[in-house]
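To whoever picks this up:

The nightly regression suite flagged PhzF family phenazine biosynthesis protein as changed. Nothing in the input moved, so I suspect the structure step. Input below, exactly as stored in the fixture:
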Amino acid sequence: MRIRIIDAFTDRPFHGNPAGVLLLDGPFPPDAWLQQVAAEVNLSETAFAHPLPPGGDADWALRWFTPAAEVDMCGHATLATAHALAAGGLAKGLIRFTARCGVLTAEVAEDGTITMDFPTSSLTPVEPDPAIARALGAPITSVHDTSAHIGDLVVELADERTVRELAPDFAVLRGHSRRGVIVTAAAEDPARGYDFVSRGFFPALGIDEDPVTGSAHTALAPFWAARTGRTEMTGLQGGTRTGLVRVRLAGDRTLLTGHAVTVIDGELHTSPEAPSL
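Regenerated output under the current build:
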């Protein structure tokens, strides 16, 4: 079985966010096997996809697993899957995926950029939890909860430097969100090519820091649109690894655009015992 490691939201190897991608010939194998493969790959997400019969609402079924759990929505592994399909000649142009969060699309342009259409997250202001401030080691400007399919807390900090220099206490953060904590601040100098910065921490899912979280930008887009009055922006996410996500807010949908590059293309020397739907 062919397995790829693809760096998403970057056009250079060893940058952006790596994802495992397995394109299956038939229905999904048992969940336990999918989880074991994701744990073995040991990246923030491994995507599994299989083709669907023609004539339906989607072309491919798609699921995402962290090393510890299945998630409802993942941007960078969707981008990586679309890149794998296009690079392998299995799809071109608009690709429709069905997933736990509904139907998502990814459109591959002639220049290799991929634009994904995701549901925009809701944002609900909540009172800052003093434990989160202590875990982050920085004062908090505001906190917003996100929609059910995301389950992150968006935590606004004072400035870009504060975001970049964070060294969180992950053990404390583990118990303070449904999925993760996204910290963000306005860019210090937009002339550098991005309008806001962010970092994503997901210790509850076995991921201390996720380099570039596409799904989080469905919340960051409306968050920063409300502050800037702009619907098209670019976000820079990451600590030691970074990547760029171009966002366009279109009401209840958010368009996420980025590049991807295949870094490893190999063979998985194991197979599930009994595939199931």
